[in-house]
Amino acid sequence: MRMIFPxxxxxxxxxxxxxxxxxxxxxxxxxxxxAPAQQGTHARGMRGDRTAMLTKxxxxxxDQQTQVKSxxxxxxxxxMAIRNDTSMSKADKRSKMMxxxxxxxxxxxxxxxxxxxxxxxxxxxxMQARMKEHKQAGESAPQ
Length: 143
Hints:
By secondary structure, this protein is mainly alpha-helical. It has helices spanning 4-29, 36-43, 50-58, 62-84, 90-111, 114-140. The longest helix has 27 residues, at 114-140. It is elongated and about 80 Å long. Mean pLDDT is 78; it is low at 33-47.
């Protein structure tokens, strides 16, 4: 009789542990939150690490990487200042941000060699085409 109870107790304990583990799996699978670092990169599209992306696409030198990172950091801080400025209208903010983005692209382009400039321009044109397609798709979508 003594041997039955310890075995039954072990079985019950194992069943309880397995049940608890199985019940927690759906809860973990439904966790839709993302890490803060991921939110920053995905929520704003390609703005995550532009230097790494350009380094890969354009084969930037170490000096070019440093310059591009500096340009991006400066642009990012200016963008945040514009976003946080409550005295500007939404249209003014948009206009200033577009000007700042254009200026940033011009500064980056100045850092590149001729071959890299050609590739950079092609990348910009491709991105503009995608944005135009996305905008047109959004306008034609039924509501």
